[in-house]
Amino acid sequence: MITRFLTDVRVTFNPFSLRSKPARLFLSLIPPNARADGMKIESKMLPRTSKEPASLGLKFKDGKEMKLDLSAMRITQVVEEVDRHSRSLARKEELSGN
């Protein structure tokens, strides 16, 4: 997963729910030095009895915001959505010579 274009990650999930697995896996895919590189990461754990669905909010360096409902997605779909925009940003960066 391409994470160098992410500036802000917000995850809300119930750690005891089976539908929260993509949220937990997404957090595990973020590199350990991401905060040191300037990424803001917020994770909110819901109580065990909560029926609120897991959600993921992302902000990219170009200002685009992405909000994903993780209760209906698999981790492969989440990574695919994030990488799709990250690849376009990498292409723009490469063409501009940075």
Automatic annotation (TrEMBL):
The keyword Ribonucleoprotein applies. The keyword Cell membrane does not apply. Its main location: mitochondrion. It is found in: Mitochondrion. One of its GO terms (molecular function) is structural constituent of ribosome. One of its GO terms (cellular component) is mitochondrial large ribosomal subunit. Belongs to the mitochondrion-specific ribosomal protein mL53 family. InterPro entries: Ribosomal_mL53, Ribosomal_mL53_fung. This is Large ribosomal subunit protein mL53. Pfam families: MRP_L53 (PF10780). PANTHER family: 54S RIBOSOMAL PROTEIN L44, MITOCHONDRIAL, LARGE RIBOSOMAL SUBUNIT PROTEIN ML53. The gene is MRPL44. Keywords: Mitochondrion, Ribonucleoprotein, Ribosomal protein.
